[in-house]
Amino acid sequence: MTAPGEIEASADYALLPRAARGDVDALRQLAVSGITLFRTNDDPFALMEGLTFARLAAAIGDESDAGLLFNALGCVSDLAHEHPDQAFWADNADAEMLAIASRLADAGAKDAEHVLLGLSTATSPRAALLARELADAMPLMGGIV
C-alpha cells in the first residue's frame, strides 16, 4: 500500500517492457511518474528518470509529448536555479527548452512563439547559444521535423 502522494512503484516496473519496445503511452506514464515523484517527494532522481522517458516519448510522440518534455526540463531548470553552483545544469535545461520552443514555433505550434519569446529574455547568453546548436541537431520532436 502506498502513502498519500506516492506512486505505486510496481506499476512503473510493469510499464518498462512496453516502454522498451517504444510504446509511447508507457513512456508518457513513466515520464509523468518521475515528474510527479519529484514534485510530491522532492526526489531529483525520479525527475532525472522521468526526463529520460519524456525525451524518448517526445522523439516518437506528438506535440503533447514535446510539452511533457518541456515540463520535465522546467523542473530541472527550477531545481538547478535554486543552487548557484548548478548554473551549468540550469543553462543546459534552459537551452533545451529554448530549442524545443524554437522547433515548435517553426512548425507553427500554437503558443510556442510566445513561450519562445519569454524564455529568450530569461535565459543566459550561454543557454541561448547552446539552444541554437540543440535545435539544429534535435531529431523529431513531438512529430515535428
Overview of the structural elements:
With about 140 residues, the protein is an all-alpha fold. The protein has one domain. About 75% of the residues lie in helices and about 0% in strands. The protein has seven helices and no strands. It has helices at about 10-20, 25-40, 45-60, 65-80, 85-105, 110-120, 125-135. α3 runs antiparallel to α4 (about 65-80), α4 (about 65-80) packs antiparallel against α5 and α5 runs antiparallel to α6. The chain starts with 8 loop residues before the first helix and ends in an 8-residue tail after the last helix.
Topology:
Elements: H1 9-20, H2 24-41, H3 44-60, H4 63-81, H5 87-106, H6 112-122, H7 125-137
Helix pairs in contact: 1-2, 2-3, 2-4, 3-4, 4-5, 5-6, 5-7
**pLDDT below 50 for ≥5 consecutive residues: which ranges?**
none
- Radius of gyration using CA atoms only: 15 Å
Structural class: mainly alpha
Number of strands: 0
Keywords summarizing the entry:
145 residues, mainly alpha, 76% helix, 0% strand
Short description:
By secondary structure, the chain is mostly helical.
